């Protein structure tokens, strides 16, 4: 009895949370069933395995459990929890530093538990100094992310293709990545995606030097945000020839929109589409609202049976039937 009472007290304390209590739920009907290989590998291990294969990984970005589920059901191998999209969908606010570590972690739990494919997560600046970066990396790993992106912007950060960006010094940027890598090496099962926004602020050469230093610190993936030409994209890929590289394919952004085959030829491994789904969703909602405001039925809505299937009712019914009495 004394042991049970002691455990109850400790478990209720904010300074004692057993690791198994912080792991996300993985109910069967919410995500796709995992293969034996997927069950044997962690999310980080599955991402490593995917990056070892030939070809570019096309990565539509998500912002909640439903968008992540749609990405998986469409046949994509990976997704990324976009900070821009998550801030917009969860808070109705722009990606200018409003959303907190706790709110991103909460959204990440929903996303990681909804799918079986590896999910990369936007860790922004790490939410503080080097010690905060390590805590953020551990938290994302415990939540189920395969990778976390850490960037070198000044807090509060903002979308990489908008005005008003500022970056920390080269030395502090390296320390930030070093802290993330240390957290990984100390047991956080997660890959480190190191991002620099220095191109827009300090020029291409400084951005390339930061990329080289991030690789030297042990980053698993590198990302130079907003190169403005194919030549700059090629220079980035040449600066880190042996490390997987991410291209950010933002419609209307500063970087040329290239098809996956051309990105692969340049040396990229991952092609991220950060706002495609959010933009499509907002456009569709605006159109439906305009129809309703005008007094007419909304055009382009899904038939109800299709919508039920998309959100998982059919999976739920199949699961329910397994445990039906009789």
State the helical fraction.
40-55%
| Total number of strands | 8
* Unreliable spans: 1-31
Summed over residues and divided by their number, the pLDDT gives a mean of 89
Distance between the termini: 40 Å
Shape field: globular
Total of DSSP H or I helical runs spanning 4+ residues? 16
What would you call the structural class? alpha/beta
Main β-sheet: number of strands, strand sense, barrel status? Answer: 8 strands, parallel
CA-atom Rg in angstroms: 21 Å
State the order of secondary-structure elements, H for helix, E for strand.
HHHHEHEHHEHEHEHHEHEHEHHH
Query: What is the spatial order of strands in the main beta sheet?
Result: 6-5-4-3-2-1-8-7
Please report which band the strand proportion falls in: under 5%, 5-15%, 15-25%, 25-35%, 35-45% or over 45%: 5-15%
Summarize the helices and strands and which ones pair or pack.
Blueprint: H1 2-12, H2 19-22, H3 36-40, H4 43-51, E1 57-62, H5 65-73, E2 79-81, H6 83-91, H7 101-114, E3 119-122, H8 130-143, E4 147-151, H9 170-185, E5 191-196, H10 198-202, H11 204-217, E6 221-224, H12 230-239, E7 246-248, H13 260-266, E8 270-273, H14 276-293, H15 304-311, H16 313-322
Parallel strand pairs: 1-2, 1-8, 2-3, 3-4, 4-5, 5-6, 7-8
Helix pairs in contact: 5-7, 7-8, 8-9, 9-11, 11-12
């Amino acid at each position: 009895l004394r042991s049970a009472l002691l455990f109850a007290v400790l478990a209720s304390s904010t300074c004692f949370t057993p690791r198994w209590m912080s792991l996300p739920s993985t109910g069967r009907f919410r995500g796709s069933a995992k293969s034996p290989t997927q069950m044997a590998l962690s999310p980080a291990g599955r991402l490593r395995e995917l990056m070892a294969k030939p070809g570019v990984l096309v990565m539509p970005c998500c912002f909640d459990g439903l968008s992540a589920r749609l990405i998986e059901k469409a046949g994509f191998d990976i997704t990324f929890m976009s900070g821009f999209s998550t801030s917009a969908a969860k808070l109705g606010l722009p990606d200018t530093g409003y959303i907190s570590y706790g709110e991103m972690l909460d959204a990440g739990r929903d996303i990681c538990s909804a799918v079986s494919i590896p999910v990369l997560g936007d860790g922004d600046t790490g939410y503080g100094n080097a010690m905060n970066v390590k805590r953020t990396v551990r938290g994302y790993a415990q939540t189920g992310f395969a990778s976390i992106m850490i960037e070198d912007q000044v807090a509060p950060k903002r979308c990489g293709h908008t005005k008003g960006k500022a970056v920390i010094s080269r030395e502090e940027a390296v320390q930030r990545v070093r802290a993330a890598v240390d957290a990984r090496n100390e047991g956080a099962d997660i890959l480190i995606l190191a991002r620099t926004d220095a191109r827009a602020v300090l020029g291409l050469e400084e951005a390339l030097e930061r990329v080289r230093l991030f690789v030297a610190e042990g980053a698993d993936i590198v990302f130079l945000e907003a190169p403005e030409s194919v030549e700059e994209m090629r220079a980035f890929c040449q600066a880190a020839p042996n490390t997987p590289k991410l291209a950010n394919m933002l419609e209307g952004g500063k970087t040329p929109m290239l098809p996956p085959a051309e990105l692969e030829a340049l040396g990229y491994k991952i092609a991220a589409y950060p706002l495609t789904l959010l933009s499509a969703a907002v456009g569709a909602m605006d159109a439906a609202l305009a129809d309703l405001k005008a007094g007419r039925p909304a055009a382009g809505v899904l038939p109800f049976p299709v919508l039920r299937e998309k959100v998982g009712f059919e999976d739920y019914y199949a699961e329910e039937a397994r445990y039906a009495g009789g």
